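re: ur question from yesterday

yeah so i grabbed the chain u mentioned. its 140 aa long if i counted rite. heres the sequnce exactly as i have it in my notes:
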Amino acid sequence: MPETSLPVRHLFKIVIETDTPSLIPGAPQGDRMVVGITGGHFEGTDLSGIVMPPGGDWVTQRADGSIKLDVKMMLKTNDDALIYVSYFGVGAVEEGELKVRSTPLFETGDERYAWLNNVQGVGIGGADGSNVVYDMYALL
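ran it thru and got these structure tokens back, copy pasting raw so excuse formatting
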């Protein structure tokens, strides 16, 4: 029988600060936009720290008005571990707000956070004006 809910564990809340987008209108797959990551921070029970620039989101504006995300960024924990994060996702304006869903993967060589290398993440969030805010979860 198909699952009707999925077990998750909250990893952290992340606030991603972004730069002014660069737009490439009329590209073959849709309008393209590159949004640079300029900083940010994340906080959770097991890890907290900052979002390190550079990083970015290579956005595709789709014909129905939704967006496809392609994000790459680096996190630095408060105890100096580096964690590479990459994800794809989709976003759409709902009730006047951008709602985004993503599927982050994590990579680190730091033994303290090696457990992240085997996590399939789920991000739920959106834009809060000038920043992008997600709650990141681990599928259990």
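noticed a couple things. The first strand starts at residue 8 and ends at 18. also The chain has a mean pLDDT of 96.
anyway ttyl
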